[in-house]
Amino acid sequence: MPEFTILGAVLASIVAAATPLLLAALGELVAERGGTLNLGVEGMMIVGAAVGYATAYGSGSLLLGTAAAVAAGVLLSLVFAGLAIWLAANQVASGLATTILGLGIAGLIGSPFVGTRLDAAPTLHIPGLTSLPVIGEMVFGQDAFVYASLVLLAAVGYGLARTRAGLVLRAVGESHAAAHALGHPVRRIRTLAVMFGGACAGLAGAHLSLAYTPFWASDMTAGRGWIALALVVFSAWKPLWLLAGAYLFGAVSILQLHVQGFGLGIPAQFLSALPYLATVIALVIISLLKRGQGAPASLGMPFIPDR
Amino acid sequence: MRKFISMAVALTAGLVLAAGAPVAHAAEKLKIGFIYVGPVGDFGWSYQHDQGRKAVEKEFGDKVETTFVENVQEGPDAERVIEQLVRAGNTLIFTTSFGFMEPTLKVAKRHPKVMFEHATGYKREKNVATYNAKFHEGRYILGQIAAKVSKTGTVGYIASVPIPEVIAGIDSFMLGAQSVNPNLKIKIVWVNGWFDPAKEADAAKALIDQGADVIAQHTDSPAAMQAAEARGVKAFGQSSNMITFGPKAQLTSIVDNWAPYYIERVKLALDGKWTSTDTWGGLKDGEVQMAPYTNMPDDVKKMAEDTEEAIKSGKLHPFKGPIYKQDGTLVVKEGEVLADKDILSLNWYVKGIDDKVPGQ
């Protein structure tokens, strides 16, 4: 059944394409729920990709590479946190600086590895299940990053809604003054949230350079960090909506390639713009549906405790 | 007497300045600047230009001093960077992307004594030369190989942006393919950019899912080659030899080789014989090279080598007539070839491509 085979392959591609976006956006969602807007996602992602590749290439261990990518993302997020949270600098400017710094550092770290390659992170095949028609490959034929993104999503969703830590984080994001008055260490909590964002962005970078296209090339994230940022807004800061947004974006970007391949004569430039168009339309619909339930109230505002 | 000497010195200096010919003195180093549109680490277009720069350094040693600036935006930013290269004392400057054309001309006007070399453009001045490479010659060979190797009769083509060079590449590929198998089908996917590895990999996977078993690309990263290797189909590399990324997949690769041109031009500048010229080299001149023919039967390899020889010797021209457009109009008559200027402004598909040029 060739139709089934191609459908399964398309679905598998969509899930894979959405994963780096989902990972990076998930981290940013947590940072933003805590009240910090970090525009450095692209920078943390590319540093994760470079450090992850360099480490995996040097050590021969994908696991070590992934761990190093996460650590690198966290390290760069600390630079941002130092500026934006502890020195109360403008968050937009600090975030942009983080991205530019990250792109530069990544190019430097990666330069000796141009033209080399790694074996891709293996996909996990589960005998019997992977060969199921249509959904087999999509659900059971992916690499570990895909499963990690879903586990993380569940953890973040549960954590934000059902745990005390999640409640405190949301309180800090909604009204840092009130949270401070209650005795919560606002800046420390925000720093932790930003570090989580850095870890997720680093992991997203590692997915690109270790599994998706296992080689290093400068600027290989190609703007995915910015799309992740947009997805957070699209999701109205809700993890489940984020999943829907990332998979919708992935679906439209993969399907437009297939539509071109079938030669239906639709202009390619229009098709390339389609993922963004779809996101904008979804954004409009969501903001119409959920009026008033928007961003965390303290988002983007630096907190300076009064002594 | 002292007065006389100082006057003589002033006069000589004045003369040298007035003559102002772009002559490098034997004792002085020739300072050469390069600007790249992408990162040198792209393993594609900018990487290959940088290999050319390194070849110049190796060839001329301490007679030259080279500088490069990577990731330069096409547009006003480029003008600033070129101006800076001039102020830093570079007297020969290579601007290596189509979009640097106007900025190069503007700076060149202000500094008539500095020599400029602009890649892939068509506007020249007394101190601005242009150069390009006939990549479509290589694509004709790719088309022939694809037609022989494909078992499904469908090849996939990942294209970047619809400019004449890319469209001419597709046409040339198809003409080569049709010379072997007139019924070969081509599926074209545009990624609308030169560099997004993950998207290029997605495009390759989509084409393979749709039944293509040979992938050609006109984008800059090895992502498509890697995707082909993972899926067990064949592919062609681009700009660099990508055999590392597809040891079982790569059939061959079109390699940009700017070194011979750069060395020749630098030599002319060093000898004071540099003039503005327009160079469009191809396989014959070594500017376009084919990576070793691999992963194909011997008869296909033989055919590819013969075609390469025929193009080099001038016996075969990729755009030789008869050539029909998609709607059946005859553009090139039997026994004629498409003129260079028409190849450089090509914006139509040949008959046999079942798709539309984007935006038309």
What is the CATH C level class of the largest domain in chain B, in words?
Alpha Beta
Reading off the top of the CATH hierarchy, the class of chain A is best stated as Mainly Alpha
Number of helices of chain B: 11
In the CATH scheme, what's the topology name of the largest domain in chain B? Answer: Rossmann fold
Give the overall average pLDDT of chain A: 89
Gap from first CA to last CA of chain B: 77 Å
Helix content of chain B: 25-40%
Terminus-to-terminus distance of chain A? 71 Å
Order of helix and strand elements from N to C terminus of chain A: HHHHHHHHHHHH
- Shape category of chain B: globular
Give me the CATH architecture of the largest domain in chain B, please.
3-Layer(aba) Sandwich
Strand order of the largest sheet of chain B: 2-1-3-4-5-11
Offer a quick outline of the entry.
The complex is a heterodimer of chains A (307) and B (360). Chain A has 307 residues and is mainly α. Chain A contains 12 helices and no strands.
Describe this structure in words.
The complex is a heterodimer of chains A (307) and B (360). In chain A, 72% of the residues lie in helices and 0% in strands. The model of chain A has no long low-confidence stretch (mean pLDDT 89). Chain A is built from 12 helices and no strands. Chain A has one domain (2-289): ABC transporter involved in vitamin B12 uptake, BtuC (Orthogonal Bundle), CATH 1.10.3470. Chain A has helices spanning 2-33, 41-59, 62-86, 91-110, 135-140, 144-162, 164-174, 176-181, 186-212, 224-234, 239-261, 268-289. With 307 residues, chain A is an all-alpha fold. The longest helix of chain A is centred in the first third of the chain and has 32 residues, at 2-33. With 360 residues, chain B is of the alpha/beta class. Chain B folds into 2 domains: 23-133, Response regulator (Rossmann fold, 3-Layer(aba) Sandwich), CATH 3.40.50.2300; 135-253 and 289-344, Response regulator (Rossmann fold). Helix content of chain B is 39%, strand content 19%. In chain B, the strands form 3 sheets. Chain B has a 6-stranded parallel β-sheet, sandwiched between helices. A 6-stranded mixed β-sheet of chain B has the order 7-6-8-9-10-12, with helices on both faces. Chain B has a two-stranded antiparallel sheet with strand order 13-14. In chain B, α7 (197-209) packs parallel to α8 (223-231). Classes of the chains: A mainly alpha (307), B alpha/beta (360).
